[in-house]
Specification:
Layout: H1 4-25, H2 31-41, H3 48-59, H4 66-89, E1 93-94, E2 97-98, H5 100-104, H6 106-127, H7 130-153, H8 161-186, H9 191-218, H10 221-224, H11 230-233, H12 239-247, H13 250-262, H14 269-278, H15 281-299, H16 307-321
Helix pairs in contact: 1-3, 1-4, 1-16, 2-6, 3-4, 3-8, 3-16, 4-6, 4-7, 4-8, 6-7, 7-8, 8-9, 9-15, 9-16, 12-13, 12-15, 15-16
């Protein structure tokens, strides 16, 4: 098991600067923005995406301070997507606490999410780098496309595995990809190194989301910080369900199709869990996550050996070993 504390210690100084910047740039003359923004930003979380930015920059030898602003921008974009996601999904629990929309209402959550997106773009312009602007604006647009594609796939039991993988690339892996690629841009790396850092983030983000979807069926609310079976209750055709339908019996396939199409999964949770066990769908999904993590690690071969590179390898292992 990877020791996340070792990674945190290595990034402690940079991440403190990132957190300080986030809190400073969160400020607004509008009281509700301060209240709701502080509530969700202070909720904790792994800060995985900004941590990737600072680690990748250090692994590439960066000695300046611009990576701090980049990391904060990445976190603002991510936090905005969380606010919007919880409204769309009608979620009431995130990171073990009430969601912002449960406390402040849907309208406030959507609007503060918009504030965070636009604050991120204000900060992007301060870096005065058109390539960084291009990468981040493209990533933000693709994330939005991914959310819409996921919405279209909801309650559709005929969703293909390819379509599912496209959703998780867009909605999750794309921001991981931007977080690590930008470190290469910031340090003016040659194209092959930039591509390697892009690949690392993409594969890591894919593994991370695959494990998230597995945990919907394999963890409890205390571990996950969200309700068990949330994806099932919403009729989301994630990889465990798609795999079970692909290899299960006719009756098993019918049960899962009904759960996805008609949101009846929570009424038959024990039966669906038994189907997932019988078809080894969770094991299959975890193996796919392991494969993505290994591809991420392989992408780092172009980097010189350092404690920061080792930490990037550790994060790839952590992505698939975690239980929350």
């Amino acid at each position: 098991m990877v020791d996340i504390n070792r990674v945190k210690q290595l990034t402690e100084q940079d991440m403190q600067a990132v957190n300080d910047l986030i809190m400073a740039r969160l400020q607004s003359d509008v009281a509700l923005i301060n209240q709701l923004g502080f509530y969700i930003v202070s909720a904790g979380g792994k800060r995985m995406r900004p941590m990737l930015t600072v680690l990748a920059a250090r692994a590439l030898g960066f000695g300046g301070e611009s990576h701090i602003k980049l990391a904060a921008i990445i976190e603002f974009i991510h936090t905005a997507t969380l606010l919007h996601d919880d409204v769309v999904d009608e979620s009431d629990l995130r990171r073990g606490r009430d969601t912002a929309n449960a406390l402040f209402g849907n309208a406030a959550s959507v609007l503060v999410g918009d504030f965070l997106y636009t604050r991120a773009f204000q900060m992007m312009t301060e870096l005065d780098n058109m390539k960084i602007m291009h990468i981040l604006s493209d990533a933000t647009n693709i994330i939005a496309e991914g959310e819409v594609l996921q919405l279209m796939n909801c309650n559709d039991p005929d969703t293909t595995e390819d379509s599912y993988m496209q959703v998780i690339y867009c909605k999750t892996a794309k921001l991981f990809e931007a977080a690590t690629r930008l470190a290469a841009v910031l340090t003016h790396q040659p194209p092959e190194v930039e591509q390697a850092m892009l690949d690392y983030g993409k594969y890591l983000g894919t593994a991370f989301q695959l494990v998230d979807d597995i945990m919907d069926y394999s963890s409890d609310a205390g571990d996950m910080g969200k309700n068990v079976g949330d994806d099932l209750a919403e009729g989301k055709p994630t990889l465990p369900l798609l795999r079970a339908m692909a290899v299960g019996s006719e009756s098993q396939r019918a049960r899962i199709r009904d759960a996805i199409a008609n949101r009846t999964g929570m009424d038959h949770l024990d039966e669906i869990m038994a189907i997932l066990a019988d078809t080894q769908a969770l094991e299959y999904s975890r193996e796919r996550a392991q494969q993505e993590a290994q591809k991420a690690i392989a992408s780092l071969a172009v980097l010189p050996e350092s404690e920061h590179k080792a930490a990037l390898v550790d994060l790839a292992h952590l992505a698939v070993e975690r239980t929350r």
